[in-house]
């Protein structure tokens, strides 16, 4: 049996696939299978558990023995008629799964555009004078000293900022942000005044904003 876990926005679902050879009916194999199912069940107690595969159990009437443990799946689980000369019933289970988008991680980025290059050059010149006067026992120590000091200069002279953990849309430029602010301002005003003129202005800005976002996204992609 193989299994995997799918994480959705609502709940985790464990999908397992199992095959039992028709000739394996001995107690040792059945006990092993039972222990395997129990381990899977105990390790995923809070998950929705879906087990499929070929059990080779022809004595079960699947039309009257389909009882999913999750209400959302109960009405959508049904057997499919035999295909060709096969002696198997296929059980169709329709479930809704939506992948969970991972939350962005905060990263520190360097703001090179607003960096004072002259200050960095002065610091590098001072370091170069000190570096040329030092002696090193081997190349590795020389490289380590050089690298540490250059990184130190960068950390001191290059400003940084942390990225946001919100989901960003890189095609949203400055003009679109300005339009969004104007739209939000118009919305608040229309809610406050209840005038048709203000409401029409808000709808106009809403349409303009949507149009500009679609254009920018199309160009970006």
UniProtKB/TrEMBL annotation:
GO molecular function annotation: catalytic activity
Record domain Endonuclease/exonuclease/phosphatase: where: 15-90
Pfam families reported for this sequence: Exo_endo_phos_2
GO biological process, one term: larval heart development
GO cellular component terms, semicolon-separated: extracellular matrix
PANTHER family: REVERSE TRANSCRIPTASE DOMAIN-CONTAINING PROTEIN, TRANSCRIPTASE, PUTATIVE-RELATED-RELATED
UniProt protein name: Endonuclease/exonuclease/phosphatase domain-containing protein
Species the sequence originates in: Mytilus edulis (Blue mussel)
Native organism taxonomy: Eukaryota, Metazoa, Spiralia, Lophotrochozoa, Mollusca
């Amino acid at each position: 049996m193989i299994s995997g876990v799918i994480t959705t926005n609502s709940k985790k679902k464990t999908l397992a696939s199992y095959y039992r050879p028709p000739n394996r009916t001995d107690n040792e194999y059945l006990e092993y299978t039972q222990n395997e199912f129990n381990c899977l069940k105990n390790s995923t107690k809070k998950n929705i558990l879906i087990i499929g595969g070929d059990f080779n159990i022809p004595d079960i009437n699947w039309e009257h023995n389909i009882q999913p443990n999750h209400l959302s799946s109960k009405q959508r689980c049904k057997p499919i008629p035999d295909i060709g000369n096969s002696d198997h019933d296929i059980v169709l289970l329709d479930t809704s799964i939506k992948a969970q988008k991972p939350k962005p991680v905060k990263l520190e980025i360097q703001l090179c555009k607003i960096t004072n290059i002259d200050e960095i050059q002065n610091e590098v010149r001072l370091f170069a004078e000190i570096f040329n006067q030092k002696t090193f026992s081997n190349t590795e120590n020389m490289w380590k000293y050089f690298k540490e000091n250059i990184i130190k200069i960068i950390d001191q002279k290059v400003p940084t900022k942390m990225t946001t953990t919100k989901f960003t849309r890189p095609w949203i430029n400055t003009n679109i942000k300005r339009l969004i602010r104007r739209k939000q301002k118009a919305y608040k005003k229309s809610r406050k005044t209840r005038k048709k003129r203000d409401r029409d202005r808000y709808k106009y800005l809403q349409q303009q904003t949507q149009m500009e976002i679609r254009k920018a996204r199309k160009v970006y992609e």
